[in-house]
């Protein structure tokens, strides 16, 4: 079967078992392509990782070698972009990862925000940028739903936006179905309230409660491209995402985050990430928690 415009012919049998070499020219092309479209900087030390990770894509697409894969990317850069980004990045996430962030939301930020929004009739918006398979936004939704009830703020227009580039991760996030062994960060009371245990073909899985689905909107988004949303957001969670970016890309990204956050809005980063020397738009107020300067 030919790729569009007949650029290359796909192999009749699957390839990419790890023995197919990644040549110098192909690695340079992939390195430049990934940086341009995803902001991910791949050094020479990542060459073996790229070769191993993309071997699965060669098999899936029935391509004979990496030259054919590069030709596919040249022919239609966007069709394969999500799969490529997913293959070369590590989507590690869990429910209530870095629990001090959720504690700050629950005990301090949400009570303050909801008091103001009930009074002013304003909306509340949180963005999970790089949501991966959805554990982060659904954990946020649990905390938010409980706060709305606790503070008598059911009338407040409150939503969580969850975005990612990986098609596979987004599919899992939309489904909201997780193996029971992935629920370790959720306490027993929240498990009983917010998760529906599966039966039959879903034995060993749990599905998030419909109330959480009401609060979470899952959408594809490339952080380097145009953003359709206008904000403003009260908080942005961008945790363990910018570890793949170089300094100029981080500076541009955090500048765009600052533009979408309310004055005094909060930015949450991963445990190994920092804004030191990158952005003056924020002040550090806690462990990997930043507040937008007025």
UniProtKB/TrEMBL annotation:
Pfam families: CheR, CheR_N
InterPro entries named in the record: Bact_Chemotaxis_MeTrfase (IPR050903), Chemotaxis_MeTrfase_CheR (IPR026024), CheR_C (IPR022642), CheR_MeTrfase (IPR000780), CheR_N (IPR022641), CheR_N_sf (IPR036804), SAM-dependent_MTases_sf (IPR029063)
Keywords, comma-separated and alphabetical: Methyltransferase, S-adenosyl-L-methionine, Transferase
Catalytic activity as recorded in UniProt: L-glutamyl-[protein] + S-adenosyl-L-methionine = [protein]-L-glutamate 5-O-methyl ester + S-adenosyl-L-homocysteine
Domain of life (superkingdom): Bacteria
Keyword Transferase: yes
Documented EC number(s): 2.1.1.80
SMART domains membership: MeTrc (SM00138)
UniProt xrefs under CDD domains: AdoMet_MTases
Record function comment: Methylation of the membrane-bound methyl-accepting chemotaxis proteins (MCP) to form gamma-glutamyl methyl ester residues in MCP.
Official protein name in the record: Chemotaxis protein methyltransferase
Organism expressing this protein natively: Rhodanobacter geophilus
